Amino acid sequence: MKFHKVLAKYYHKWFRDCHDSAVYCKEKGDLVEAEKYLRDAERYLNVILDNFEAIEFFSVGSNAYLSEESLPPEFRGY
User: Fold this and answer.
1) CA distances (Å), 35 to each of 2, 3, 23, 65, in order?
2) Whole-number Å distance between alpha carbons of 15 and 45
3) Global confidence as pTM
4) 46 belongs to a structural domain
5) Closest CA to 5 of 71, 72, 78
6) Is residue 42 in a domain?
7) N or C: which end of the chain has fewer CB within 10 A?
8) Domain interval for residue 36
9) Using one digit for the tens of pLDDT, what is the confidence trace for 5-15?
10) Is 77 contained in some domain?
């Protein structure tokens, strides 16, 4: 899964939603669906861990929509 700056504010929510869905499916006995949600949660977690500082930056206000030239150097190229 590739990180997209305009989606930055959603990655934490999507991770939590997948985790919660996996727990719910497991409680209901649907282990196949629970595993699917856990794989998705792992993919989101990897994006979060690999891009943590960028997610924090691009989640604030309209930072995700700033022009490349106005971004701090460490966040250019996303």
Assistant:
1) 21, 23, 10, 35
2) 6
3) 0.87
4) yes
5) 78
6) yes
7) N
8) 13-63
9) 999 999 999 99
10) no
